[in-house]
Design a protein that fits this description.
Order of helices and strands: EHEHHEHHHHEHEHHHHHH
Keywords: Aminoacyl-tRNA synthetase, ATP-binding, Ligase, Nucleotide-binding, Protein biosynthesis
Radius of gyration: 22 Å
Protein name: Tryptophan--tRNA ligase
Bound molecules: adenosine-5'-diphosphate, tryptophan
Number of helices: 14
Low-confidence stretches: none
Structural class: mainly alpha
Pfam families: tRNA-synt_1b
Shape: elongated
InterPro entries: aa-tRNA-synth_I_CS, aa-tRNA-synth_Ic, Rossmann-like_a/b/a_fold, Trp-tRNA-ligase, Trp-tRNA_synthetase
Enzyme class: ligase
Length: 319
């Protein structure tokens, strides 16, 4: 299957992102043709600080590579390195009814949150449709909030195909329903907008601070504790196999250890789990030339597919 996804370069990744989405993406690499890009054109709708956007894009690329995107298995590039997508975006705009965009939840939510209604924000789904359709994508793995955008891409593809014949492959969204919501340090959904995250690439000091801020109850040290609704346990279990989870449950039930002990244990789990990725992340960020080389390698492969698709489109539309 040809699977494509775009990743927003929006700040530091947390373990909710990892267990909720990145891990599934990495699993798809082996049996599919994966296309993955850093969506820096999309990020323009919410970031007008050029230096920051550039740095965020490099950080996102370093993060995803170090976590396991393999540029020899997947095509991995920076969206703005394959400019054909903007050309297709304009062409697709002619096949995008206003009503389709007016119904987009994500646009309505952003406006409700006080973002200025501009054309970029409004036409965001058309650019996303161009990302998807340019590469004959079959499957788009997404979080629930993005399903409607994939449906919009499908609607646009259908309209084009009705006019020009079978130009575009119809994409489908794939939502991983089994993935549970990862809780944050306050017990609500972990999210950078709630400032309750445990970050994958945090320094030791920040990691310690984030973990020590996890909310727990006030059961005294010597008493047995309930693991079921403990935020520390619920985060730790993500890193543990069944046997290890049972061992930790036994420690809770036995009493004699305080939440501080369990937090220390969680701290080690997170540190060990991401140790080699963190090392690679820092290496890549210290070597932007290598990072750019990897992104250019991916862009050259993506461009080849994009160019050949555009040739067919030019012919149909008379450009
Ligand atoms: P945030 O809420 O921190 O802004 P994003 O919306 O950027 O995170 O999420 C990026 C991806 O990570 C999405 O696919 C989303 O489903 C997944 N994700 C984010 N937070 C969690 C969480 N707490 N539990 C499970 N998956 C999550
Ligand atoms: N809109 C997506 C998000 O915010 C990012 C994205 C851009 C994307 N283009 C895409 C995702 C194409 C899937 C396919 O997460």
């Amino acid at each position: 299957m040809r699977v494509l996804t775009g990743l927003q370069p929006s700040g530091d990744l947390h373990i909710g992102n990892y267990f909720g989405s990145i891990k599934q993406m990495l699993n798809l690499q082996d049996d599919n043709q994966m296309l993955i890009f850093i969506a820096n054109y999309h990020a323009l709708t919410s970031n007008f600080n050029g230096a920051e956007l550039k740095q965020n894009s490099l950080k996102a690329a370093a993060a995803f590579l170090s976590l396991g995107i393999d540029p020899n298995k997947s095509i991995f590039w920076l969206q703005s390195d394959v400019k054909e997508v903007l050309e297709l975006y304009w062409i697709l705009s002619q096949f995008t009814p206003m009503g389709l965009l007016e119904r987009a939840h994500s646009y309505k939510d952003k406006i409700a949150k006080g973002l200025n209604a501009n054309h970029g924000l409004f036409s965001y789904p058309v650019l996303m449709a161009a990302d998807i359709l340019l590469f004959d994508t079959q499957i788009v793995p997404v979080g629930k909030d993005q399903i409607q955008h994939v449906e919009i891409a499908r609607d646009i593809a259908l309209k084009v195909n009705n006019t020009w014949g079978e130009i575009f492959t119809l994409p489908s969204a794939k939502v991983n329903e089994e993935v549970a919501v990862v809780v944050g340090t306050d017990g609500a959904k972990m999210s950078k907008s709630y400032k309750n995250t445990i970050d994958i690439f945090a320094s030791e000091k920040v990691l310690k601070k984030q973990i020590s801020s996890i909310k727990t109850d006030s059961t005294p040290l010597e008493e047995p504790k309930s693991w079921q609704d403990c935020n520390v346990y619920n985060i730790a279990k993500l890193f543990l196999n069944k046997q290890e989870q049972e061992n930790l449950q036994a420690r809770y039930q036995k009493g004699g250890e305080g939440y501080g002990h369990f937090k220390m244990y969680l701290n080690d789990l997170v540190k060990d789990y991401f140790a080699s990725a963190k090392n690679e992340y820092e290496n890549l960020l210290n070597n932007p030339a290598k990072l750019k080389e990897i992104l250019e390698f991916g862009a050259s492969k993506a461009k080849k597919i994009a160019k050949s698709k555009m040739e067919k489109i030019y012919e149909k539309i008379g450009l």
